[in-house]
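Duplicate of #3305? Posting structure anyway:
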């Protein structure tokens, strides 16, 4: 018998949630990637961006990966530009003029999903890959703690800038331990699950673990924790 049970209400967030706090929607992310490409010596990449009339940067990303006319250097440059756009968005969250305001609003909202019974385990799912939650979720004294199954970092949940995660958080090669610990009773009453990976996550081969594009199912299947 499990020591904990899912709380009655769960939370699922996407780009529209962090837009409230200065994040980008799809069209704005397209523009941010294009801005990152300004200093890249590959005009072919900018042409691909403009060729997509829907400003769908995920579709462009797929096109870049599948395009046999592009060199590995060009593909790598596009990946770095996209990563740079996400990093730039994440930096907006840590504006010292707004940090306290963001934290208070976010903390009050998320607390509704921690459950009310002692055996409740809250679940917070997100499609976002930024570090907004890792920055602004700081449990009050005696309050519910948040955890990411199978992962941890001493830099998380301290209301401090997290843009310096270039070294990466290494994902485990197996999800067995994370699964077995999920339902064990502990002070962390809220589980945060990033369905599409995250900025700053690295696979065992050193590659970035951000699920982007229109082949998400295949990408997720390749990473045990996801």
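Output from current build:
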């Amino acid at each position: 018998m499990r020591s904990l049970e899912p709380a009655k209400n769960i939370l699922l967030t996407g780009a529209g949630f962090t837009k409230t706090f200065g994040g980008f929607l799809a069209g704005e992310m397209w523009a941010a990637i294009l801005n990152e490409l300004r200093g890249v010596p590959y005009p072919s990449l900018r042409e691909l961006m403009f060729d997509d009339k829907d400003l769908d940067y995920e579709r462009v990303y797929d096109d870049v990966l599948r395009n046999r006319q592009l060199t590995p250097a060009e593909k790598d440059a596009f990946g770095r530009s996209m990563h740079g756009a996400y990093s730039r968005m994440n930096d907006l969250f840590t504006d010292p003029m707004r940090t306290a305001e963001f934290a208070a609003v976010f903390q009050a909202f998320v607390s509704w999903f921690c459950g009310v019974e002692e055996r409740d385990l809250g679940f917070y799912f997100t499609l976002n890959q930024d570090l907004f939650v890792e920055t602004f979720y700081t449990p009050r004294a005696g309050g519910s703690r948040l955890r990411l199954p199978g992962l941890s970092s001493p830099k998380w949940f301290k209301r401090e800038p997290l843009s310096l995660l270039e070294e990466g958080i290494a994902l485990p090669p197996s999800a067995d331990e994370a699964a077995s610990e999920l339902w064990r009773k502990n002070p962390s009453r809220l589980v945060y699950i990033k369905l599409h990976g995250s900025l700053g996550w690295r696979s065992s081969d050193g590659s970035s673990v951000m699920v982007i594009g229109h082949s998400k199912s295949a990408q997720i299947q390749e990473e045990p924790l996801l």
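Confirmed duplicate; merging threads. Residues 26-93 form one domain. The longest helix spans residues 72-93.
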